[in-house]
Amino acid sequence: MLFRDARKELRMGRTNKGIALLEECLSLDATDSHSWLALARAEAWRGNGNVARSLFQNGTKACPDNVHLWQAWAVHERKAGNLDEAREYFSRALVLDPANPYVCHAWGIMEVKVGDLHKARDLFLRALEAGPHPQVSVALAELEAQTGDYKAARRRFQQGAEGSDLTPEDRVPLFMAWARLEEQHFGRTDVALDILVRAGQENPEDIKVAIALAQLELRMGNVDSACDIFESTAQLPMGDARAGGGLYNAWATVEARKAPLDFPPPQKVLHILQEGIARFPAEQSLYQTLGTILERSGNYSAAREAFRQSITIHPTAPAFVAWALMEERITPHFPKSPSAASILAAERSGANEARRLFERGERESTCY
Question: What 3-state DSSP class applies to 205?
């Protein structure tokens, strides 16, 4: 019950409350691997990398046979650039589950990025020999494309997408990646469109498919068709806040482009973003987009509040930079806006110090 409440708090953006509940879970049961994992990820998400590392260390001591903790710790170290440590923890995970597809996928993707394609291929094949897995199939097909063998990549996609062992939902990622291959490497937008339509038929409520389909329509010059797809998809139930936020952001951005650059965006754009925020109040990217739209409308104080809200939920570099650029644009008589400098310094300083710095930047901006 406590763990479920903690997850709910985290999904709603009430991170401090969620973390407090997870700590309470661990005070009751130090071998609760789910709470160790959720707590470490929550700390990493809000920028406390060293705290997250300590939690992974303590969690794997308390639950040494938990594959998910070792894998998550490996991914954390990969993101921090500690590749040797990441390999060590991936290896420990595979000792516990030798063909775990999530471990093989994450480790393989890391090796692709550093150029060890042979190791990556071995990891992907190791997982697939144990059974079908859509993300691993996509990764292997994309590896074929990366080495220039586009026909082999197409065969991999076809085999995976048509495999009877996968559910319709599992086949969707394969269809989406296959569509990208057809468009980007073969220039066959008509085939890509057919594949995405098929993906939508496999899982009509998959928001990511709808976004991909609308974006393809945009690249084909069909702006109205893209907006129609966004509008109809927004009527569907959406449990994934990130995907839902992505839908509303993409829809608002396309609608905003309909207006000339020197004109305020249509009121409809604000309505789209406000609807998205009402549905996904903890999705920080919506507030960042809202800030950009409000700035373009000349409503700088409201834009500043939107950027502030975005960073309060989750400090990200794009939000800091967007806010700082606005402050510089509206303070033209200073070579470097003091508020912009503080906001950019906040972006470089990490999540905790960030809040103090950008709040100082806000105070300074009212003095110039």
Answer: coil
Predicted TM-score of the model (pTM): 0.71
DSSP at 115: T
- Between these two residues, 171 and 164, which has the higher pLDDT value? 171
Closest residue by Cα to residue 217 from 243, 254, 248: 254
Residue whose structure tokens are 């639950």:
63
Model confidence band, residue 156 (pLDDT cutoffs 50, 70, 90): confident
The CA distance from 19 to 25, in Å, is: 10
DSSP 166: S
Cα separation values, 252 from 61, 207, 233, 288, Å: 47, 15, 13, 12
Q: Give the side-chain half-sphere CA count within 13 A for 337.
A: 25
Q: In angstroms, rounded to a whole number, what is the distance separating the alpha carbons of residues 165 and 171?
A: 10
Q: Dig out the tokens for 311 from the structure.
A: 């960073």
Exposure on the CB side of residue 153, measured as CA atoms within 13 A: 22
How many CA atoms, within 13 angstroms, populate the side-chain half-sphere of residue 345? 15
Q: What is the pLDDT of residues 253-291, one digit of tens each?
A: 999 888 765 567 788 999 999 999 999 998 999 999 999
Backbone φ, ψ for residue 56 (5° rounding) = -60, -40
Cα 201 to Cα 168: distance, rounded to the nearest angstrom = 9
pLDDT at residue 347, as a whole number: 55
Q: Which two tokens stand for residue 171?
A: 């086949």
- d(Cα 204, Cα 207) in Å, to the nearest integer? 8
- The tens digit of pLDDT for each residue in 116-139 reads 999 999 999 999 999 888 899 999
